[in-house]
Design goal:
The protein is α/β, with parallel strands linked by helices. Helix content is about 30%, strand content about 15%. The protein is globular.
C-alpha cells in the first residue's frame, strides 16, 4: 500500500482510536491536510470523512485492483484552481467485516447499536477535531463513499444530521436489505426532509443506476432541490470500480465544497 509522500499526510495508529461501543476492530486512520494548513496554523477547515480509506489515495496498486481514487491529487488540483475550498480528508479503512460495518444490520431506522456508526461518530470524529485544524460546524462536515461505503455514508448522515451536513454517495448499494427486509428506499420515505446537501451518481453497466434513480426521485418528492441541495449524475458506460469513481469524484467534491462560481455539471 502506498500513501501520499507529503508532510500534510498523517498516520493515526489504531492504538489511539480504540472503540467505545460494540464489537468492532480498531484501525489506523489517515488524515490529509490542505496546503493552507501549513501556511496558517490558526485556520480551521471543513472535513470529509471517507470510507474504504486505504483505497482513496494515489496508489496505482490499491487493494481492489483498479488503482486508488487519487482523491488527494484531485482535492489539491481543485483547491489550487479555486474550484473548491480547502478541505481535510480523513480516510477510514475498511476491514474484513466491511459488509457488516457498511450495511444497516438490524434496521435502517435505528443505528443506536451500529458499531461502525458509533466508531466513526464517537471515536474518529472527536479525535480528528481535537488533534487537527478541523471546523466542527456540521454544515461543512461531510461523508463520502462508494458502493456499500456510499450507502453507510448516507445512512449515517440521515441519522446524525446534527454532525454532518454534506454527503456523497457514488454507486450506492441501495439494494441491500436490513434484517426486517427493508431497503434504504423504505427508510428514506420514513426519514423525510432534512437539511443535507447530497450528491448521488452511478454508472450504467452493472452499477445500480436504476436504484440510484429511484433514490433521486424520492429525494425530489421529499423536497430536495436539484443544484441546490441535491446533485445526481449518471455516468453512461461506467462500471462499478475505482477507475470510474476516480474519474468523476471531482463532481462530488465541487458540489459539496465548491466555490460559488464552480461548475458542477
Amino acid at each position: 500500500m502506498r500513501f501520499p509522500e507529503s508532510p500534510r499526510f498523517h498516520f493515526v495508529p489504531r492504538e489511539r482510536l480504540k472503540p467505545r461501543f460494540g464489537s468492532i476492530h480498531a484501525r489506523d486512520v489517515y488524515v490529509y491536510l490542505p496546503q493552507a494548513a501549513l501556511q496558517d496554523a490558526r485556520r480551521r477547515f471543513p472535513v470529509l470523512y471517507c470510507q474504504d480509506g486505504q483505497n482513496i489515495w494515489d496508489d496505482p496498486e490499491a487493494c481492489f485492483g483498479h488503482g486508488g481514487w487519487c482523491l488527494n491529487r484531485t482535492v489539491d488540483d481543485l483547491t489550487t484552481t479555486g474550484q473548491i475550498e480547502p478541505v481535510i480528508l480523513v480516510g477510514i479503512p475498511n476491514t474484513t467485516d466491511r459488509k457488516q460495518e457498511y450495511t444497516a444490520g438490524r434496521s435502517y431506522a435505528d443505528l443506536r447499536d451500529h458499531a461502525y456508526a458509533n466508531y466513526l461518530c464517537d471515536v474518529i470524529k472527536p479525535y480528528v477535531e481535537r488533534h487537527f485544524p478541523a471546523r466542527k460546524d456540521r454544515r461543512v462536515t461531510g461523508l463520502l463513499g462508494s458502493s456499500l461505503g456510499g450507502l453507510i455514508s448516507l445512512l449515517i448522515a440521515h441519522h446524525y444530521p446534527q454532525m454532518f451536513g454534506r454527503v456523497a454517495c457514488l454507486s450506492g448499494a441501495f439494494e441491500c436489505k436490513d434484517r426486517e427486509g427493508k431497503t434504504f428506499l423504505d427508510f428514506l420515505w420514513e426519514c423525510g426532509r432534512q437539511d443535507l446537501r447530497i450528491y448521488l451518481d452511478a454508472g450504467t453497466i452493472r452499477d445500480g443506476a436504476p436504484w440510484t434513480r429511484k433514490v433521486r426521485d424520492i429525494y425530489l418528492a421529499l423536497g430536495w432541490v436539484p443544484g441546490r441541495d441535491l446533485f445526481h449524475y449518471e455516468d453512461v458506460g461506467a462500471e462499478h470500480n475505482e477507475r470510474f469513481w476516480r474519474a468523476r469524484v471531482w463532481r462530488a467534491l465541487t458540489f459539496l465544497y465548491g466555490r460559488p462560481t464552480s461548475a458542477t455539471g
